[in-house]
Amino acid sequence: MGTYVPSVELIARVQAGEPAAIGRLMSRAESGMAEAREALVRIHKLAGRAQVVGITGVPGSGKSTLVGKLARNLRTSGSKVGIIAVDPSSPYSGGSILGDRIRMSDLGTDPGIYIRSMATRGATGGMARAALEAVDILDAAGFGVVILETVGVGQDEVEIVRASHTTVVVSAPGLGDDIQAIKAGLLEIADIHVVSKCDRSDANRTLTDLKQMLMLGMREHKPADWTVPVIGTSAVSGEGLDELSDAIVRHHDVTSASDAGRAQRKSMAEFRLRKTAENLLFDRFVETTAAASGKLAERLMRRESDPYTLAEELLAATLAKEDDNERDVHSKIA
Amino acid sequence: MSQPIRVLLAKVGLDGHDRGIKIVARALRDAGMDVIYTGLHRSPEEVVIAAVQEDVDVLGVSLLSGVQMTVFPKIFELLQTNGADDMIVVAGGVMPDEDVAELKKMGVNEVLLQDTPPQTIIDTLTRLVEERGAR
Ligand code: B12
Ligand SMILES: Nc1nc2c(ncn2[C@@H]2O[C@H](COP(=O)(O)OP(=O)(O)OP(=O)(O)O)[C@@H](O)[C@H]2O)c(=O)[nH]1
Ligand SMILES: [Mg+2]
How would you class A279 by CB atoms within 10 Å of its CB: exposed for 0-12, middle for 13-18, buried for 19 or more? Predict the structure, then answer.
């Protein structure tokens, strides 16, 4: 790309589906740089058409492999498929080995498929901080379906529900006696349940157990016009992939008109709003407290004051900065 | 907050030697970089498309099969046609000195062959990304 291209100049190229422009804007979104803000605002205005499909499940349940197969299957219906695959950052070095893509390698060079790997970088909830911006960018680039694979860590993953129109929970046989979805608290969040690796002989038991659990009526808060299907799939034989694609498309059709779908979209918007605010606040906190925290820690160490009082003092800078910003805004308006 | 350096590590063609690249992958991760490994037996097309989609700072190709003089020209051609000519490209593995000289002329930023200590690889990549500047 040569010399630095301003982010707003990437927008038209993103809309034209140019991979290098999509990739670059995602990187800038990830870096949180101020220069990209205006472009991301405009991208958000252009987005809003894609169906976001969240895929979650415990580590090793076969999410990435399934996503690879599913993407190819959804492609046959003509829509472009974007994939955002999140893996954890190492808590020690902050670095990561992003291993999801390797499981999707038979997608080859289809230009209608875009895969982006992201590291969590300390973000909780199974998602990367810029995952939602990346979804917008793919959406604006004309990808009709965007699949979001989260890290499989368990309870925290419920965030995926508030980022996706359709949530798919993947369970696999042979990872333990119980259905891991139950253990991880993922049972309730699924719009679609998948039992992967159905080429294995122990898969039937997992399927039966899961269906029974669901029949016990643990899901009464879900809308009446959608019955959560339990689908067995195999990446080896291809079993269940058509059925899963159909269910995803059907779920989209049902929810795009229903009250439940509307409630879900509202919930997604609220999540996005709060997440963005949280990020802004956090950045401001980091920025405004960096200088003072060492000195305050000294005072705490010497027990000259207590943690609460000192924390209030530390926060004062963050809050004052916000007042300054407000004043800025007002003086601009005035 | 400074961004971790993003690196795509690739094995191209029939070359099945993956010990070295796996060591490199771990070393880079432990140095705080985000590493995407393509796995074995990729084509130059697959590698370049992945590198562009992932918008990596560095594309690293490991070759111990002797095909570097056909693989790298192809990679540069593909980077050009995909609008990614600002990508840093490094090579590793086993190759003769005369090829190393040719590869550097072709645009490979660094060639780091067998017995290169991991720390040297980390330092080299860090320096190359610093020299390139913002993008
Ligand atoms: C171990 C080994 C094997 C193992 C590989 C196991 C594995 N999964 O990796 C096995 C036994 C399978 C094997 C098979 C073969 N091998 Co062999 N193998 C070796 C050997 C002895 C060591 C390679 C190694 O692992 N080194 C240790 C690692 C840590 O070093 P490295 O890979 O060089 O990586 C370092 C650097 O190069 C660098 N690096 C590597 N990648 C990258 C990438 C980037 C981006 C960066 C920055 C740096 C970097 O960082 C690492 C740390 O310093 C070499 C001899 C040698 N001296 O290299 C022959 C060698 C590579 N093999 C050779 C051959 C011919 C073969 C076979 C064809 C033999 C045969 N006739 O069957 C097969 C081919 C298999 C295949 N499908 O490719 C030849 C290749 C000749 C050539 N290039 O022209 C060599 C050079 C031996 C020789 N002198 O003839 N081999
Ligand atoms: N037999 C069989 N194995 C499978 C199937 N799908 C995936 N696997 C294997 O299960 C293992 C984990 O697969 P992944 O796709 O990486 O699982 P994941 O849930 O994405 O893993 P994380 O991202 O690490 O949480 C791999 O060894 C796959 O080869 C399947 O349908 N059948
Ligand atoms: Mg995965």
Answer: middle
B23 in a structural domain:
yes
Q: Where are the domains of chain A?
A: 50-104+117-123+145-256, 273-333
Closest CA to A35 of A14, A13, A6: A6
Is-contact B102 B75, C-beta < 8 A?
no
What number does CATH give the domain A50-104+117-123+145-256?
3.40.50.300
d(CA A88, CA A23): 20
pLDDT band at A284 (very low <50, low <70, confident <90, very high): confident
For B40-107, give the DSSP string: SSB-HHHHHHHHHHTT-SEEEEEE-SS-HHHHHHHHHHHHHHTT-TT-EEEEEE---HHHHHHHHHHT
Which of A23, A105, A121 is facing B55, going by the closest CB pair?
Answer: A23
The two structure tokens encoding residue A47: 């987005």
pLDDT value, residue A318: 80
The interface predicted TM-score (ipTM) is: 0.94
Q: Which protein residue has the closest C-alpha to ligand 1 atom 75? A: B16
Residues of A in contact with B86 (CB under 8 A): 1-2
- pLDDT of A329 > 70? The answer is no
- The predicted structure's pLDDT at residue A317: 77
Q: Which residues surround ligand 3, an ion (CB under 5 A)?
A: A 63-64, 100
How far is it, in rounded angstroms, from Cα A81 to Cα A15?
15
For A225-272, the pLDDT digits (tens) are 888 999 999 999 999 999 999 999 999 999 998 999 999 999 999 999
